[in-house]
Design a protein that fits this description.
about 40% helix, single chain, 9 strands, 4-stranded mixed beta sheet, alpha/beta
C-alpha cells in the first residue's frame, strides 16, 4: 500500500487525508497495482497550477489536475505526485451541479489513472479513461455507503437488550430511496418471543411505509461476522429477494453476500404479494 503525503498550499478546502488515502488504496487495488513508497498529493492555487502546466506541458491555461510519475529509484521513496487545484475543481463542480467533494474525488481518480498509464489525448483514449474513472467513483460511493451502514449498525447494537444470550446485535437497513432504519435484538425470558435486530429494522421500515430495500448491515461480536438467522432470511426475502447483506466486524472489515445465496429456493406464495 502506498503511503500518501498531503501538501496544501492553498486556503481552499480540500479532501480530508483519510478520504485521499481511501481513494488511492481503492484505485490501486482495482487496477491490480502495488506501489510501495510515497505518493504526494498537493493542493495549489490557480496561478501555481497554471505555471506548472505552462512549464512542463507548454500550455498556458488553468487546469484541475496534473500528474507526475517519478519512478521507484528515488532515495526519498516518492514514486509520483498529483497536483490538484481545488479552486478550479470547485468551478467545475458548480458547472456540473455536483458537490465539491464529489468533483475533487473524481479529479483525484483522474490523476491516479494518468499515473497508471491512462491517456486522454485521443477521443478513444478519453472515452476509456472516463468510463474507468466513473466506474471507480461508483465503487468508492458503494464502499462509503456500506461503511456508513455498518457504523449505524454498530450504534444500534449499543441499544440491544440481550441479558440471556449476552450476544448484542445491531442492524441497519437501507431502502431504495436512501432511508435507513436501524434495529437491535430484543430478548425475552420466554425465549421464543425474542426479536432479532434484522426483523426490528424491517418492522420499523414497513411501519413507516417503506417496503423496498437495497442493503442490510449486521454487526455483532467484533471477532466474527454475523449473518441473519433462518427466520430473518425468510422475512427479508418477503420484501427484498435481491438484498445485499453486509456482515461486519467493523466499518473496515466486512463481507458482502446476497440474500438469495443465503436462502436459495425461498418460500413464497405465488399470489401472496400485492404490487
Amino acid at each position: 500500500m502506498s503511503r500518501v503525503e498531503i501538501i496544501n498550499r492553498t486556503e481552499e478546502s480540500f479532501l480530508p487525508k483519510r478520504k485521499i488515502q481511501k481513494i488511492v488504496d481503492l484505485v490501486l487495488k482495482e487496477e491490480g497495482k502495488q506501489f510501495p513508497g510515497v505518493l504526494v498529493v498537493a493542493a495549489v492555487d490557480r496561478e501555481e497550477i497554471r505555471n506548472l502546466k505552462k512549464r512542463f506541458f507548454g500550455q498556458d491555461h488553468y487546469t484541475d489536475v496534473i500528474s507526475f510519475l517519478y519512478g521507484f529509484s528515488d532515495k526519498d521513496g516518492i514514486w509520483g505526485e498529483i497536483v490538484i487545484c481545488p479552486a478550479v475543481a470547485k468551478e467545475e463542480a458548480r458547472a456540473r451541479g455536483v458537490r465539491n467533494e464529489e468533483e475533487m474525488s473524481i479529479v483525484l481518480i483522474h490523476g491516479l489513472l494518468h499515473l497508471l498509464g491512462y491517456g486522454d489525448e485521443e477521443p478513444q483514449e478519453r472515452q476509456v479513461m472516463e468510463e474507468r474513472q466513473e466506474a471507480l467513483y461508483q465503487l468508492l460511493r458503494e464502499e462509503e455507503e456500506r461503511e456508513k451502514l455498518v457504523r449505524k449498525a454498530i450504534r444500534a447494537k449499543n441499544h440491544a437488550y440481550a441479558p440471556y444470550s449476552n450476544f448484542p446485535v445491531g442492524a441497519a437497513l437501507r431502502g431504495w430511496g436512501g432511508e435507513i432504519f436501524t434495529g437491535c435484538n430484543v430478548e425475552n425470558a420466554s425465549l421464543g418471543l425474542t426479536i432479532c435486530a434484522e426483523r426490528v429494522a424491517v418492522a420499523k421500515a414497513v411501519s413507516q411505509g417503506v417496503r423496498e430495500f437495497e442493503k442490510l448491515a449486521i454487526v455483532a461480536d467484533s471477532s466474527s461476522y454475523c449473518f441473519p438467522c433462518g427466520a430473518c432470511r425468510q422475512v427479508l426475502y418477503e420484501f427484498a429477494p435481491q438484498l445485499e447483506i453486509i456482515a461486519a466486524k467493523s466499518d473496515k472489515d466486512y463481507e458482502v453476500i446476497s440474500l438469495a445465496s443465503l436462502l436459495p429456493r425461498a418460500f413464497l406464495l405465488e399470489n401472496g404479494r400485492k404490487e
